[in-house]
Write a structure and sequence with these properties.
The protein is α/β, with parallel strands linked by helices. It folds into 2 domains: about 170 residues, Rossmann fold; about 270 residues, 2-Layer Sandwich (Dihydrodipicolinate Reductase, domain 2), CATH 3.30.360.10. Helices cover about 25% and strands about 15% of the residues. It is built from 12 helices and 14 strands. The protein has an 8-stranded mixed β-sheet with strand order 13-12-11-7-10-9-8-14, with helices on one face. A 6-stranded parallel β-sheet has the order 3-2-1-4-5-6, sandwiched between helices. A hairpin with a 2-residue loop joins strand 11 and strand 12. The chain is globular.
C-alpha cells in the first residue's frame, strides 16, 4: 500500500511549483499555526541574525558552530535546540525542515548541497558559493530536489532596489548604455602573505571542522596591531583569503551588482576583464576594477558593459553633473540615453540631472521581509525572489570577476553553457577546485 502524504511531501510539492513542476495536493498540509522546524549552521555574527530572523513564529530545533563560545551564546537563546559542532551530524537529525547556512564562503555549497539532497530547504548567505561550479550545481540540485531556496542578499527585498528596478524598466532614463557598481570594501586584511609559524588552537575552536573542504593549514591567532579578538582567519578575517572567501567583490557584489542584473534583465556575461592588481598566492588584492560584457536586452543598448570597483575605487565623478555631490562609498549608477540613475547602497534612487527630473515623481515600491518570504514559501505560501534560479546565475557573474583578477588586463571570453573560457583555457582551472581528502560532497567533488 502507498503511504499517505506527509507534511514534508506537501512542502516538497509546493516548492516544485516555483520550478514549473506539476503540483499534487496531498491531504495533509501545514496548518495556520504549524511551525517550521529550523536548524542554523554558523550561528555567530550574521548567522545569529539569520537564525533569529527566520525563526520568528517557527521552532529552532538544532544549531551548529565550530566555535564552542559562539555555540554556547546561541544555545542560551534556543535552549531546546540540539547542539552540534559538525554540520554533517546535524543533517542526520530527522525532524529538520529547513536550514540556514551562514559560514565562511568556502563551506556554503558543501553544507547547502548536503542539506538539499536530504530534502531540506535552505537559506544561504551571500555569496552563494566559493566557485563557479558550486554555484551552478547548487541551482541544479535545488531544482532536482524541489526545495525552497533563498540567498541572503536582503536588499533584493528592499524598497530601494525594487523601486530602482521599476524605474529602469519603465524607461525613465531611456536605454541603459553603461552601468557601474562599487564598494568601499575590503575592511579586512587583503594583499597580505600567509604568516609564518603557527599558534596553539584554542580549546573552544574545532579547527579541522572550520577548515572543512579547504586545504589543511596551521591555525594562527591574532597578530600585533590588529584587533585582539580576531585571528588571521577566524573570526571575520577569512574573507580576504583565497581558500576561504571571495574578497570584497564576493562579499558585496551579490548586493550591489544585483540591481544591475535584475533591472536590466541581464543573462550571463559574455566576457570579463580585470584592470586591477593580481592576487598573491594567498589573498585577494587591496583593490580591483572588473568590467563585465553583456549582450543587450530590451532595457539596454545593443550591448552593455558593467564595471565593478572596490578598495576605494569609484566611477568617474564626471558621470554626474558638476554641481552634484560626490559619489557615495557604496552604490550603483546607470547611464541611460535620457539621464542617469544613482542608488546609494540600497537607498532611494536619484535621477540626474536634478533640474531635468525635478518634477518626476518616484513612486516607492514597498519592501517585504526577505526572511519571512522564505519561511512562508517553505510552508507552501508564496515564492521566494532570490531563489537559486536567480541567485545562482547572479553569483556566477560575481565569481567570474574572481577568475579575471588572476589574469590582469586580459579579456576572458566566457561560455556559460560549457563553463569554460574559450580564448584562455588556463582560466578553466579556477572554475572549481578539489576538496580536501575525506571531505568529498556528492554533486560537488570530482
Amino acid at each position: 500500500m502507498n503511504r499517505p502524504p506527509t507534511r514534508r511531501d506537501f512542502i516538497a510539492q509546493s516548492a516544485a511549483v516555483g520550478f514549473g513542476l506539476p503540483l499534487v495536493i496531498p491531504s495533509t498540509v501545514f496548518g495556520a499555526n504549524e511551525r517550521l522546524q529550523i536548524a542554523g549552521v554558523g550561528v555567530g555574527g550574521k548567522g545569529r541574525g539569520d537564525i533569529a530572523s527566520t525563526s520568528v513564529g517557527q521552532a529552532v530545533v538544532a544549531i551548529c558552530d565550530v566555535d564552542d563560545r559562539t555555540l554556547a551564546a546561541s544555545a542560551s537563546l534556543y535552549p531546546s535546540a540540539k547542539k552540534y559542532n559538525d554540520w554533517r551530524r546535524l543533517l542526520d537529525q530527522k525532524d529538520i525542515d529547513a536550514v540556514t547556512v551562514s559560514t565562511p564562503d568556502h563551506m556554503h555549497a558543501p553544507i547547502a548541497v548536503s542539506a538539499m539532497q536530504r530534502g531540506k530547504h535552505v537559506y544561504v548567505q551571500k555569496p552563494l558559493a566559493h566557485t563557479l561550479y558550486e554555484a551552478r550545481q547548487m541551482r541544479l540540485i535545488a531544482k532536482k530536489h524541489g526545495v525552497v531556496t533563498q540567498m541572503g542578499n536582503q536588499g533584493h527585498s528592499g524598497t530601494g532596489y525594487m523601486t530602482l528596478v521599476k524605474l529602469i524598466q519603465s524607461g525613465v532614463i531611456g536605454k541603459v548604455k553603461e552601468a557601474h557598481a562599487w564598494s568601499n570594501r575590503p575592511i579586512w586584511p587583503q594583499g597580505v602573505e600567509r604568516p609564518q609559524g603557527s599558534d596553539p588552537v584554542p580549546d573552544h575552536l574545532h579547527w579541522d571542522l572550520w577548515l572543512g573542504v579547504a586545504k589543511e593549514r596551521p591555525f594562527v591567532g591574532p597578530q600585533p596591531g590588529r584587533k585582539k579578538n580576531r585571528g588571521v582567519y577566524h573570526p571575520f578575517n577569512w574573507r580576504g583569503w583565497l581558500d576561504f572567501g571571495v574578497g570584497a567583490l564576493g562579499d558585496m557584489g551579490c548586493h550591489i551588482i544585483d540591481p544591475v542584473v535584475w533591472s536590466c534583465g541581464l543573462g550571463s556575461p559574455t566576457a570579463v576583464r580585470s584592470s586591477g592588481p593580481k592576487p598573491n598566492d594567498e589573498t585577494f588584492p587591496n583593490w580591483g576594477i572588473i568590467t563585465y560584457e553583456f549582450s543587450g536586452t530590451k532595457h539596454t543598448a545593443d550591448s552593455l558593459n558593467v564595471t565593478w570597483y572596490d578598495g576605494g575605487k569609484k566611477p568617474d565623478q564626471a558621470l554626474l553633473p558638476a554641481d552634484e555631490p560626490p559619489l557615495p562609498d557604496n552604490g550603483s549608477l546607470f547611464v541611460g540615453d535620457n539621464g542617469v540613475l544613482l542608488c546609494r547602497n540600497g537607498g532611494t534612487p536619484q535621477l540626474f540631472p536634478s533640474s531635468k527630473f525635478a518634477k518626476t515623481e518616484i513612486a516607492l515600491v514597498p519592501a517585504h521581509d526577505h526572511y519571512l518570504e522564505w519561511t512562508n514559501a517553505c510552508k507552501g505560501q508564496g515564492k521566494t525572489t532570490s531563489h537559486f534560479d536567480y541567485a545562482g546565475p547572479l553569483t556566477e557573474t560575481v565569481l567570474l570577476g574572481t577568475v579575471a583578477i588572476r589574469f590582469p588586463n586580459q579579456r576572458l571570453e566566457w561560455n556559460s553553457e560549457t563553463m569554460k573560457f574559450p580564448n584562455l583555457p588556463a582560466a578553466d582551472a579556477f572554475v572549481h577546485h578539489a576538496y580536501r581528502q575525506g571531505w568529498d560532497v556528492d554533486g560537488l567533488s570530482g
